[in-house]
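Researcher: Good morning. I'm working through a list of sequences from a screen, and I'd like to move beyond sequence-only analysis. For each chain I'm collecting a predicted structure so we can compare shapes side by side. This is the next one on the list. No need for commentary yet; just the structure.
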Amino acid sequence: MHGPVTAAWLLVALCAATGAYCLLRMRSVVAEQRRAAGGEALMGFGMAVMAVPAAAFTPPRWAWPVYAAVFGAAALRTLWAARTAPHHLHHLVGASAMVYMSVAMAAAPAGAHHAHGGVGVPLLTGALLVYFAGYVLLAGARLVPAAVAVAGAGADGGSVAWGDRPELARACRLSMGIGMVAMLLVL
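Model: Good morning. Structure tokens for this chain:
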């Protein structure tokens, strides 16, 4: 990805930290939460790697089709899961956006600062930006009541395992949504 170097490194740190926490969430006793956390860890680490500034590391041309294949497989897996659990549709959009960004970067001429080549590409980027910006606003609005509820529950001595804290899972999803907006803006 291309853009300001400091912002890119902050995005790398945010996405890597999110991916690391999602790995911790995979230790949950709830099977559905473990599956969701695994997909979110893949997204977090994939976004971190993709956000490394081009000045620090420029992946070889063959890396972008590999990224597209990995996230294409993740999108297919998520599509399969979404047939019985519609809440997976957001993960499908996220994985598809990663495929789109990988294809756009693969199609960009070497050394180009923008991958937009055709008329349809900016339109799709704009649609994804609108979706993820809306998601970030909605996730942020949902995060506050979850955090307040957990803070109130903690006052009576109850403790929840780190992998099962709903407000932290929502914060991770919010972080990845913010990261996706940032990545789409500099695409």
